Amino acid sequence: MAEAVVSVVLESVRDFTIQEAKFLSGVSRQVEAAQTELEFMQGFLKDADARQGQDTRVQICVAKIRDAAYDLEDIIETYGLKVDSKKKKRGLKNVIKRFACFFKEGLDVHRIGAEIENITTKISALRSNLQSYNIKEIGDRDSGGGESSLQLHERLRRSYSHVVERDVVGLESNVEELVMHLVKDENRHQVVSIWGMGGLGKTTLARKVYRHKKVRQHFHSFAWVCVSQRFQVRNVWEGILIELISATWEQKQEIKDMTDDEIAKKLFLVLQKMRCLVILDDIWRINTWNLLEFAFPNVETESTILLTTRNQAVASLQNRNVFLHKLQPLNENESWELLVKKAIPARAEIDLGMYTKKKDLGTKMLQYCKGLPLAIIVLAGVLARKNSIREWVRVYENVREYINRGIGHEEEYEGVSRVLALSYDDLPYYLKPCFLYLSHYPEDSEFLVSELTKLWVAEGLIFSRQQRHSLWETMEDIARDCVSELVERCLVQVGTSGSTGTIKGCRIHDLVRDMCLLKAKDESFLQINYSLQENTSSMAAQASQLGKIRRLAIYVDEKADNLVSSRDETNGHVRSLLFFVPREWRPKSEKGLLSPLEDFKVLRVLKVEGLRARRVELPSEIGNMVHLRFLSLRVSEIKTFPPSLGNLVCLQTLDFRVSSYIDMVIPNVIKKMKQLRHLYLPWNYRVKGKLELSTLGHLQTLHNLSSEYCDLKDVGRLTNLRKLRITLSSSLQNLEEILKSTGSTLNRIRSLMVKNNMNSGEEQAMQIVLSCGGIYKLMLEGPIAELSKELHNYPNLTKLVLWRCGLKEDQMGILEKLPNLTILELIGEAFEKNTKILVFSKGGFSSLQCLNVSVTDQITELRVEEGAMSRLCRLGIKYYRGLTTFPDGLRYLTNLKELTIRGMRRELHRRIEKDGEDFYKIQHVPSLVIGEPLD
């Protein structure tokens, strides 16, 4: 991956020298020479990266090249930022002090120039070493795939509907067998176990069973929890209980205050009383089950536990009535069928001779996959991008080479990991660091694409020359393209999708993560510490062998005293520091908890989320971390916003959505952070005067803006703004005039939330909405004036959330005519208190696919006319205490795939049971999720 590192550094140095050329005048010659040497080096790195596993000398040399490139970037940027800072302060100095400053700065220039020259000499010597090891120079990095960068970019911009649902082969009989055992009334099993090695598709099978129509109709309540290796018993019990009873906010607080024994007893009684299906996915050890089982009844009940595991001892559970289902690998025909689905689109294959040759090669390669769907999918991800027979032959030769390398010292399925490694080596240079960055996420976690893309951009992993396909395309857009390509290559799985069809959440399979961790270690890309009490000498040892530690992910141990246990010389090289804090963790001392972070001098990324210590102060020294691009303290209980944050002139993302119990005072320093792209202000804050934001020309996201502390004219000057969340806390003067002057800017906003905290702000809230004609997502909270018919002319509006808006009943006539609305949520008193009936009229909501109506008491009837919501596939009716009967019109919703009913009266629950008088209205729905009734 040295090719990627050198390319990243070159891009960074180029951008910095262009933007900050005036600050590098004293060392410009040395910087130019270093840049040239890196460009020469690039030609050798593709071959060098490929040869690392074959020659230890090459591996060590590549590690030194990575270090030298990173050191060069740190030195140049540090010097440039220091000169910039000095020149800003110099205007206040007198003539004598100015001469002294120039003399000292001259010494700095000489020292920095010498350091840059030393690194350049080192890089030149390393290039000579590579040549002596017979490393070949490859001129064009992008030519290997036979595809121009423009063609690549256009292909990346395509949407891939197939990634939402993975092609499944060979599971049909497994699904039917398991469903039969789950829904039978006699000789029932307490536990149903799916057993098999990693990558066989256990989770996929469990998910298909979980969503099966017969299963949904048989059980009344459902819960799914992924256990994994690093689980917490209490967290697992809490998660199951909350899902089974569809817990309200108040119930969640009650559960949080329970002891472990009380939670176990409550869960035991729920499982004994109700007919529940609980999925425990990915249990590794029998001890894990032994710790969890106290909450699961060991007597005859109508509830069932379905678990997936790699461990036969876990699957068997001697002390339980268990049905054991061993999942088998795919046979030869099934393996080929799956490979064809992923690697050979039917529309692209018309030459029978070519198909026959590919089948011959593919069948030989499939021998190494051992029938594992995951390995087949990953191999297909490589082959799907190879069109010619020659390219398939090359992949086949590489597969043989990978497998042969492990002959004689591999376990039965060791070859699978080598197929996965092949998929990594096949990645283009710019995707390798993006993929390795995924290794810092905990096992079995789903990560948000919106956060991941910000981290990639902050780290400089996204190249500016990859972009500019269109005028308004951002670096984040390019990063999302990279996510899509990793999905297309089957290295990343889609978790959840957004309302506009974008990928919202992702995850990686545990075998892929294992490979990712191994590669990250080999490349000295990232180190994970599972406890800060670990001996830091291991970090130093690794640094001496494979390079300095540049990125550190810390999984804080519940018993740890501090976030940072000791100062270490390696800290000075770390550029990315991500903490994963367990919810239960409380430090022994909150004073100075974050102070040791000042040791990380060149840090670019700092993520300390979920830090629940009530008196933590953000030290003023954080203002010295001038390299920071990404700072997130989300859901941490921080009480101060130090003015020194204004020194972070490189900051791109500031997420200050802290859990503060008092109004935080924010000094007017954000205006200095001119590189900000994403700004998330605290939920509660005050400002002395007004926040000046007009200098933030790069800002794309602005959350929790208060009209009381900001001039809306400033928002109108933010020409790159795409997401805005604004709270109307005070009346806006001359609003119409302001909106007219800023209309062209506001029309570029794609996601808008307006929260009205005033009794008189209804008209102004609607005025802001009508000034944002390009929005895709709109959320309105609090009282609002009548909806305007102009919303019918909003072609992009696909998601609308109305919360406590107090609309009149006739406003449904406007909502139902929104042409492209696909998601609608009506929460709380979305309509005024005297509204008793909501009518969904014939022909209305023609594009709606998802509807949620929840948390209201005054609505007594929902009326669905035949022909309404013809495309609706998901419906949620939750916490409607006033509802007395289910709409007869539900039977007209023939496309409905999922119906969720939670928090309803007990008599309504009886009406929708199999023998209930309303069951006929919903019996056609494949997936029914019915929560615990209200008492």
TrEMBL record:
Keyword Glycoprotein recorded: no
Keyword NADP on entry: no
Domain NB-ARC: 172-348
CDD domains xref list: RX-CC_like (cd14798)
Domain Disease resistance N-terminal stretches: 5-93
InterPro entries: Apaf_helical, Disease_R_plants, LRR_dom_sf, LRR_R13L4/SHOC2-like, NB-ARC, P-loop_NTPase, RX-like_CC, Rx_N
Domain called Disease resistance R13L4/SHOC-2-like LRR: residue spans: 589-905
Domain Disease resistance protein winged helix: 441-515
Pfam families, sorted: LRR_14, NB-ARC, Rx_N, WHD_DRP
SUPFAM superfamilies: L domain-like, P-loop containing nucleoside triphosphate hydrolases
Alphabetic keyword roster: Nucleotide-binding, Plant defense, Repeat
Protein name: Disease resistance protein At1g50180
Organism taxonomic ancestry: Eukaryota, Viridiplantae, Streptophyta, Embryophyta, Tracheophyta
Gene: LOC103343385
